[in-house]
Design brief:
Strand content: under 5%
Mean pLDDT: 75
Shape: elongated
Number of helices: 8
Largest sheet: none
Radius of gyration: 17 Å
Number of domains: 1
Oligomer: single chain
Order of helices and strands: HHHHHHHH
């Protein structure tokens, strides 16, 4: 059902371009935060720090976040083009939450440690069973929710 809503939208050149550009920019930001900022421009240092399994899962989740972010932005622009005056606050709030979580979860788990300090738990990442991948999993879930809510909003507007 969800694919029936956004696949025809993404077949349009304008929205496909928006999707690709947004996804590439998000992937570039994730790459920068992971490789350039954390591992000093070296993929081998990242592998030594995190291990091959953690690194591959982390990159896979980052790619999923980037793709979902691109789809979300394209759907948001389509909805804005469809109706200028009303907005679905749940979809926008979850989209912003997913985007913020994905940006914060882009780097290594050590980069997220200062964020937990704001909530009074600076060593919280050590207690997590997946060593910080939970942040990326949460961001994927939030982005899926935001795409779903936005697609449902578009479907309601198209059916009216």
């Amino acid at each position: 059902m969800l694919f029936q809503i956004f696949l025809p939208i993404l077949k349009r050149k304008k929205y496909l371009t928006i999707t690709l550009v947004s996804a590439i920019l998000m992937a570039a930001l994730s790459y920068y935060l992971t490789i350039v900022n954390v591992a000093f421009h070296s993929f081998s240092i990242l592998l030594q720090m995190d291990g091959p399994l953690f690194t591959s899962v982390s990159f896979g989740l980052s790619l999923a976040i980037s793709a979902l972010f691109g789809i979300y932005i394209a759907l948001l622009v389509f909805r804005r083009d469809l109706i200028k005056d009303s907005k679905n606050p749940k979809a926008i709030i979850s989209g912003v939450g997913g985007t913020v979580a994905s940006i914060l979860g882009s780097g290594c788990p050590t980069c997220g440690a200062p964020l937990f300090a704001f909530f009074g738990a600076p060593l919280a990442l050590m207690s997590l069973p997946l060593q910080g991948l939970e942040i990326k999993i949460l961001s994927v879930l939030l982005m899926l929710l935001s795409v779903y809510l936005l697609a449902k909003s578009i479907e309601k507007k198209l059916n009216c």
